[in-house]
Automatic annotation (TrEMBL):
Protein name: Fluoride-specific ion channel FluC
Binding annotation for Na(+): G59, T62
Keyword entries, A-Z: Cell membrane, Ion channel, Ion transport, Membrane, Metal-binding, Sodium, Transmembrane, Transmembrane helix, Transport
Organismal lineage: Bacteria, Bacillati, Bacillota, Bacilli, Bacillales
HAMAP family in alphabetical order: FluC
Regulation of activity: Na(+) is not transported, but it plays an essential structural role and its presence is essential for fluoride channel function.
Gene label: fluC
Length: 104
């Protein structure tokens, strides 16, 4: 899924800002927040299901390592403003996405 989304976004976005990874991580934070709010652990099966989807599927969909690689690449390219914006926006919108997902 991440491969499809990344390729689709990169086909139309050719700027230094790594938009594909940014959108994947923000949407993943939203879905994780929603999942953890929606699936309340009433029994061990609920906890297992929530963790399997959250850690397994959503964890595989999002990517911290790619975000760090892209940050280092921006640093190496001396794109310091873009790098700073990327890191700060990823953290801020990741938190907001998770909070919004949990509130639905």
């Amino acid at each position: 899924m991440r491969f499809f989304v990344t390729n689709h976004i990169n086909a139309i976005w050719n700027k230094h800002f790594p938009l594909a990874t940014f959108l994947i991580n923000i949407s993943g934070a939203f879905f994780l927040g929603f999942l953890y709010a929606a699936v309340r652990p009433h029994n061990p099966l609920d906890i297992l299901l929530r963790n399997a989807i959250g850690i397994g599927f959503i964890g595989a969909y999002t990517t911290f390592s790619t975000m760090m690689y892209e940050t280092v690449t921006l640093f190496d390219l001396r794109q310091f403003k873009t790098m700073s914006l990327y890191l700060l926006a990823s953290l801020l919108f990741g938190l907001l996405g998770a909070k919004l997902g949990a509130s639905i």
